[in-house]
Amino acid sequence: MGDDTTQYDRVCKDEFKEIKAMITRLDEAIRGNGKEGLTTRMTRAEIRANDNYKFLVGISSAVALMLLSVVGKLIYDFLVL
Q: Does the structure show a pLDDT above 70 at 2?
């Protein structure tokens, strides 16, 4: 039993300490820990992407409506004249 403890102290203890430190750093990066974390940054990026999409749909709709009115005017002028 004593041999297992010394092997743990010699080999595993430092490895587990490093793994725990890595997990702690990952957790802090995800949650933020008082700073802006990955979750908050991703949420903000998704909101910006959604706003950009809505803006592009609005611009595209306006351009399509303008082109449709120009084509309609040309057709109307051709039929009337």
A: no
Number of C-beta neighbours around residue 74 at 10 A = 10
CB 47 within 8 A of CB 56: no
Express each pLDDT in 14-38 by its tens digit: 899 999 999 999 999 998 888 888 9
Q: Burial level of 47, CB count in 10 A (0-12/13-18/19+)?
A: exposed
C-alpha neighbours within 13 Å on the C-beta side of residue 16 = 6
Assigned token pair, 77: 């002028």
